[in-house]
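Structure ticket #2291
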Amino acid sequence: MAILIFLLLVIAFVGSIGIFYIIFYNRLMTYRSKIEQAESIIDECLRNKYDSIVKIDSLISANLKHEKSFFADLNTIKDDNITNFDFDRKLVSYMAIVEQLKQDYDSVNEDREIKKILSDIKAIDEKLKAAKVFYNKYTNKSNEMVRSFPSNIVAKLHNMNIKPFFDGKDMQDDIVDDFKI
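Resolution: structure written out below.
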């Protein structure tokens, strides 16, 4: 009789561990799926924003009758091996150039096509901002589970590591240069 009780306790214990394993695994997979979904939206928004900036570059050059491009490395940026965060930063700097050109040249500021593209970029930026917030939210939740017991055991079994936030900051290292604006 004692063996039967012991066996039932072992089965209950193993079953409980199995249930907790499944719960933690499913939660980690849900977070991973949401992070991948946000990454996909961010990729799409960055590609659309890049294409829009290329159109603006050609319109500005035609509008100002300049043969040179105002964005020196715009055509080669896609060939560079950079992160989405760095790509986003470069696109933001290109948009700053566009804003400066709008202030410097009335013909650029009054061009309908440029205004339409800038309106589209504004919509893209709003979607991009929301996707970044979504990405960082679920990255934070995933990182919390990867760090905390007992879900960290499940994460280690499946080689899940801490993911960086979209802004590229790593709170776990000693490098303070990653906090540049």
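Closing remark: The chain has a mean pLDDT of 85.
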